[in-house]
Amino acid sequence: MKRKQRMNRLGTGLFTFISIFYVLPVVVVLFNSFKKKSYINLEPFKLPNETTFTGLDNYATAINQYDFLKAVGWTVFITVGSVIVILLCTSMCAWFITRVRTRVTRAIYILCVFSMVVPFQMVMFTLSLVTDRLGLGTPWGLIIIYLGFGAGLAVFMFCGFVKSIPIEIEEAAMIDGCSPIRTFFSVVLPIMKPTYISVGILETMWIWNDFLLPYLTLDIKKYKTISIVIQYMKGSYGRVDMGAIMAALIMAVIPVVIFYLSCQKHIIKGVAAGAVKG
């Protein structure tokens, strides 16, 4: 018993140290966001003092000079729109390929799973070319692109959960006169709520922080996401506004951290629910 307690304490101490190691860079960025930019490179690990403290000037610069709020608006639109489309389309697809067992549905499932292991570098140049030719270089077009790249994981998780739903519930609904569409939205969808929440959280964190897809596909002269704006804070001849970058990073991180902390309990619940049968 004492040995088990010692192991628990050792594990707690180890993981506490690892947690501090991961949180420390965020704390350093937070402190530096309140410093004058000339002192950030000179004293990056020191707390702000009466000489280096600049208040909210860095945040004002990021918002006013670099049009940060507009980037936040486009990022919210792309993230919310993409997550809604991914959840709706992939859940319906997963329900169909799980209940209708044919060679075609098996092939669709295999392709969705295979898409998760294909390196993005293999398709990025072709993606850029297709995006230009189809006119998808807009936030609305980017939502369609995110549907394609986010479908693999979502279909995989939804399929695992649908297999755990007794088919007798759906048969009873159809006997009562429900069409397949009504059966899905009235019976299946409410049961799939844990997986909906889990997939929604994972997709939200990915899309909110993504840089490469928006950078490759969007018309940057018209549309910029948060990650692109932060990248463009690096000026010509190597000039970098470190103060504005630190402030922008904090403003970009806070919403997704709050969102994750408020919903983290649903991630394990949704993954476990989707792993009941396979």
3D structure, described in words:
The protein has 13 helices and no strands. The protein starts with a helix and ends with a helix. The C terminus is likely disordered. The radius of gyration is 23 Å and the shape is globular. It has one domain: MetI-like fold (Orthogonal Bundle), CATH 1.10.3720. The protein is an all-alpha fold and 278 residues long.
The proportion of residues forming helix, as a percent range, comes to: over 70%
| Low-pLDDT sequence parts | 274-278
Shape: globular
Q: Compute the gyration radius: what is it?
A: 23 Å
By CATH, the architecture is named: Orthogonal Bundle
Strand content: under 5%
Query: What's the number of structural domains?
Result: 1
The overall strand count is: 0
Output the helix-strand order: HHHHHHHHHHHHH
In the CATH scheme, the class would be Mainly Alpha
The CATH homologous superfamily is called: MetI-like
- The chain-level mean pLDDT equals 84
Summary, kept brief:
The chain has 278 residues and is mostly helical. Helix content is 74%, strand content 0%.
List keywords for this structure.
278 residues; mainly alpha; MetI-like fold
SSE blueprint:
Blueprint: H1 2-32, H2 37-40, H3 57-64, H4 68-99, H5 103-114, H6 124-134, H7 139-162, H8 167-175, H9 180-191, H10 193-209, H11 212-217, H12 226-231, H13 242-274
